Automatic annotation (TrEMBL), chain A:
Superkingdom assignment: Eukaryota
UniProt keyword Transit peptide present: yes
Coiled coil: none
Domain FAD-binding PCMH-type residue range list: 47-241
Pfam families for the chain: FAD-oxidase_C (PF02913), FAD_binding_4 (PF01565)
Full protein name: D-lactate dehydrogenase (cytochrome)
Protein localization: Mitochondrion
Organism: Caenorhabditis tropicalis
InterPro entries: FAD-bd_oxidored_4_C, FAD-bd_PCMH, FAD-bd_PCMH-like_sf, FAD-bd_PCMH_sub2, FAD-linked_Oxase-like_C, Oxid_FAD_bind_N, Vanillyl_alc_oxidase_C-sub2
Automatic annotation (TrEMBL), chain B:
Organism whose genome encodes this protein: Caenorhabditis tropicalis
Location of the Electron transfer flavoprotein alpha/beta-subunit N-terminal domain: 23-216
Coarse class of the protein's main subcellular location: mitochondrion
Name of the protein: Electron transfer flavoprotein subunit beta
Cross-referenced InterPro entries: ETF_a/b_N, ETF_b, ETF_beta_N, Rossmann-like_a/b/a_fold
Record family assignment: Belongs to the ETF beta-subunit/FixA family.
GO molecular-function terms, A-Z: electron transfer activity
One Gene Ontology cellular component: mitochondrial matrix
Oligomeric and partner information: Heterodimer of an alpha and a beta subunit.
Amino acid sequence: MRRVFSTQAIQTAIEKSLPDFEKVAGSSAVRTQESVRRQFARDESHFISPPPAVVLEPTNVEQVSKFMKICNDRGIPVVPFGTGTGLEGGSMSTLGGVCISTQQIIGEPQLREQDFVCSVKPSTTRIALNDAIKHSGLFFPVDPGADASVCGMVATSASGTNAIRYGTMKENVINLEVVLADGTILDTKGKGRCPRFAPFQLRFTKTCRKSSAGFNFTELFVGSEGTLGVITQATVKVHPRPQFFSAAVCAFSSVHQAASTVVEILQWSIPVARIELLDTVQVQASNAYSNLSLREAPTLFIEFHGSSEKEVADQTAAVEDICKSHEALDFDSGASPDKMANLWKARHNAYYAALALRKGARGFTTDVCVPISKLADVISETRADLDEHEILGTVVGHVGDGNFHVILPTIEEDKTEHRKIQSFSDRLVRRALAADGTCTGEHGIGLGKRKYLREELGENTIRLMHTVKKALDPKNILNPGKVLPEL
Amino acid sequence: MKILVGVKRVVDYAVKIRIMPDRSGVFTEGVQHSMNPFDEIALEEAVKLKEKKLATEVVAFSLGGPKSAEVLRTALAKGADKAIHVQVSDAEAGKLESFHVAKTLQKIVEQEKFDAVFLGKQAIDDDSSQTAPILAGLLDWPQALYASKVEDGGSGHMKVTREIDGGLDTVKVKVPFVLSADLRLNEPRYATLPNIMKAKKKPLKNIPITELGIDISPQTQTIEVTEPPVRQAGGFVEDVSALVAKLKEKGFVKA
């Protein structure tokens, strides 16, 4: 089903289409200047790609639809681009076609407080969303490192440090407005009519949180990384902000003890809000970077949320008992904002602390996820791999989900080192897959991880992916070359 | 110490401001509003002092149209014990100036006997930065403006560190006093749902401005409100001589 795109054919088709693009959204929305196109040539990954041939900046969903119709008619590849904070090359225009920047589709978040949902346009980032609703006592919990656009987070099925209690994007999307390859606009859960006219908006979408009606298209698009449609509005769940907090930090004699502690905490069903692991090398880095004096050992960072002081105190005490039964070396906890900030300093600065280990380095981050029962072994083996091959790297994990990242401070220009890191990453993925895990917990497949999908999902699932892709995008113009491995 | 905290309902800081076509002001209809960020900081400091047992009661105050009550409810959800809403019409609210607010605050302070008034250093819509100093003058109270730290000063005093152009200035003020909060004073807490629900039961007193006998006729007249000039596109030049020629042509360099 793969359509062969020739660079020349794409260029010609685009040149012919420029006046049509201008008719749709005005000449100021059609950007051909090289300096503009170069801004859309890369994301936060390590891939190099030519810039798109043209960047289109629609301001509403109808314009997106018209752009898609033109591109679909003429077989022009289209890559949607949000905040460009992806880590796997998902928004890079590797075939140099059209890049649709979604960031000019502007609108204020529409909060329905009593329904605990909020609808946002692509220009709304997660921090902007939380800012807009902060007066309501509600918050949007998914917090990946970057201040990504919420619709982009839907496309990559993003996750954050509190997924263990509040879920990832998969658990927090109610409805999506999507534009398909042929320009069709649809709402995955249906569209409702707006009861009264209000300026600047509004296609109110259905926001009831439960429904058994029809196929689950909402989750089909979550994590589709721009290959099945362009997301132009997302209706997400918002949660009550916790009233009370507590935090704890605990060092262990080994990663195994730390990981077993996590398993036990979950089995006691203590509803921790965050539980993160920093390995010894990361703790050393954080000590140096933030002027701390934590014991240089694998350390768990835990956060508790609750609706009363007693609730968080009880959770903290229960976890303290469990830690001590796993030969904890230190246990420190606190409930005041200052104490908590202090306790978590090492975790908050982990990424920069790791990079600071090496002057001039940029960060290469891996992202695998394994069943929690296998976590201790996989992390230990990974650490052994790093040591054996003398690769500088730290391990930081969302251990409650079995997900961990290796942060590798690397000098980009060093090709030998780059190859060494690629091999390490490859071994890591295969180790995770062998442990019944996945090659990507949070970051997505994008460009770099297509080669693992077949092994992870199996031939039949890959075929089904192609069947669905063909049905939604028969000409394969939506983000071609990403996510789906060749048949 | 009984603290009165002034809070103002302003257009939310994240909103893209649009000017009315008749240049009389900015669009406020249907636009997201919220509590002035510096007032949030002032309120947080007052609530923190109450939690440290240095204050006994925190009362939120607003002079504004009917919708100012929303901001007062938020203040109650964030820890204020009571609220006072001195109400004017929407049309009048648009023309209020710092002087009117200070006069109203003065009346309330004299009626209800407060020991301190905490205000934000300025409102983000008019940037006047006048209400606190005018009020201090009217009450003849000491003032601690642009506060970045507040501590107990002992024997009826408070020790306040202020951010000034040259650095930090620490003053000791005798209670009662006026304080204006600057950005780094604290990080305001979020209102949580249970606190929002509890706030619905806290007392919110509504006083029409006419009851206080304060003259709110404007002292200034806004002639026009316009956007800053649009940035003109630059131009490329081929080489240095062309650059010099252009500079001479535009009169930046003597020909």
